[in-house]
Amino acid sequence: MEIQEMKDFTSQVRRDIVRMVHKVNSGHPGGSLGCTEFFTVLYQEIMEHDNNFNMDGIGEDLFFLSNGHISPVFYSVLARSGYFPIEELNTFRLIDSRLQGHPTTHEGLPGVRIASGSLGQGMSVALGAAQAKKLNKDSHLVYSLHGDGELQEGQNWEAIMYAAGNKIDNIISTIDLNGQQIDGSTDQVLPMGNLQAKFEAFGWDVLEIKDGNDLQQVIDGLKEAKSRTGKGKPVCILMHTVMGHGVDFMMHTHAWHGKAPNDEQLEKALSQNPETLGDY
Amino acid sequence: MKKYTDSGNKDTRSGFGDGLTELGRKNPNVVALCADLVGSLKMQDFIDENPDRFFQVGIAEANMMGMAAGLTIGGKIPFAGTFANFATGRVYDQIRQSIAYSGKNVKICASHSGVTLGEDGATHQILEDIGLMKMLPGMTVICTCDYNQTKAATLAIADHDGPVYLRFGRPKVANFTPEDQEFQIGKAVKLYEGTDVTIIATGHLVWEAIEAAVELNEKGISAEVINIHTIKPLDEEAILNSVKKTGCVVTAEEHNFLGGLGESVARTLALNHPAPQEFVATQDTFGESGTPEQLMEKYGLNSDAIINAVRNVMKRKKQ
């Protein structure tokens, strides 16, 4: 996909995100907007994946979303990558929907391989799937995404230790470094210090994407990460993003972590992200 | 009266280990995980024969449960083993979200359950695990009574698609079920026919129930004994057929009376056929250090306790 096409894609995804959370007056737009470039690049450019969904995913790359609250961006990109009808985004967080507030396999939504939302569990699951790939002699990769605040959960560090200690080198775990969590900045809530040094001390190969809202940087970073797999170390991407990116009044604040825009705010947000691929 | 013979004391955890070894030979999709308790769980033979299919996660049970969930993606059948305490309470949310709600085909294999773990004391003696696991939608809960049944159950759950909690224990206990038994998940095993009282037991209490029935028989009380190895799904038909005949029931388990087998039986009876029931179980307490025998006696979990409960429940039946 050309960069311009990808830009158009992200504009539409951002419209989906704000429309989804606005309609039900709930959900998490901030982190979703910040990770729009990442999801777009992953599903449109990087991963070999089959939108004819099969849970086992043998012979394709897999993705696990650990910070499940950014489900709006996940759902939008899955739908627009052909996993399920785009109109189904209209059912987000409504009763009888497959698009639960946090992603789940329970309703059989194609593209989702694990329930997430209770934080800190996704890397362990991704590691298990990576081990299964090795057992199956499947050379495809496993990707995972984690919030930075989420790293406060101790299970992550169990998984981080395991992955390096067991040379799980078919996994790329990306940390969304937006510096915000629901109660404030990560530094205010619980400072996590130097994450690069921490991952490296645990034995990971770490690289950085300085602007995770720049498509080219995300493409380059993910390609670089891919090139570092298969070398005996798990790969971590520290990806700096801006929470709320693409909607000016939602940027650089934790206020929109888990809050929906009102009618007026929705119109403003939409005006900043032109319709490119057609609203659902 | 049929005589059940102990073919030689063996621990149920060895039944798990030997079952796992057999599975390793016959099912290439079976993989195993352990959190630094390989010796206690008797997993070494499986590991020796299948080093590539074993994952030592270290003392990190949360990561183990998540990894087990992930291993199912790609068609593996993970058996994750640790002590019951660390296999349930410590990782309840991991099991809830990544395994049960996600519908993953993980077998949670829990040794050293109940007070018979013994000398290590209450920090390690979980008496709430059946309750925790049976409350999870979609979770199958099995508690086996001896070596042979544990081995048979280990083999059977590999063929069952869905999450399973398999509970067994540490001490050597009577081994009396047939070596060649067919283990049917959800199907109760009737050990004695009787007319005066139904004794429904699970796990280590099954042998105690047999001993109690023999003693009761000598005193002219005819006890029907049912071995409930699957607490969820519960064989309600077997329970109701028996209690309709005997009119009262004693449930026996190495677990708190809150949340255990007894409550599941009580619900079944309340909905279908109310009848007097007594609970042989721990009475909402923690355990403590001691030998398994001492603890079973102190916490009212042996054949004497069952006999007392039978006398009490039969008095209530007459009123």
Write the layout of secondary structure elements.
The complex is a heterodimer of chains A (280) and B (319).
Chain A: H1 3-24, H2 29-34, H3 36-46, E1 62-65, H4 71-80, H5 122-135, E2 142-147, H6 154-165, E3 171-177, E4 180-181, E5 184-185, H7 186-189, H8 195-202, E6 205-209, H9 215-227, E7 235-240, H10 263-271
Parallel strand pairs in A: 1-2, 2-3, 3-7, 6-7
Antiparallel strand pairs in A: 4-5
Chain B: E1 10-11, H1 12-26, E2 30-34, H2 38-41, H3 44-49, E3 54-56, H4 61-71, E4 77-83, H5 84-87, H6 92-101, E5 107-111, H7 129-134, E6 140-143, H8 147-158, E7 164-167, E8 172-173, E9 189-192, E10 197-201, H9 205-218, E11 223-227, E12 230-232, H10 236-246, E13 249-256, H11 261-272, E14 277-282, H12 292-298, H13 303-318
Parallel strand pairs in B: 2-3, 2-4, 4-5, 5-7, 6-7, 10-11, 10-13, 13-14
Antiparallel strand pairs in B: 1-8, 6-12, 9-11
Helix pairs in contact in B: 1-8, 4-6, 9-13, 10-11
List keywords for this structure.
heterodimer; A: 280 residues; alpha/beta; Rossmann fold; five-stranded parallel sheet; two-stranded antiparallel ribbon; 7 strands; 39% helix; B: 319 residues; five-stranded mixed sheet; 13 helices; globular; thiamine pyrophosphate (chain B); Transketolase_C (chain B); Transketolase family protein (chain B)
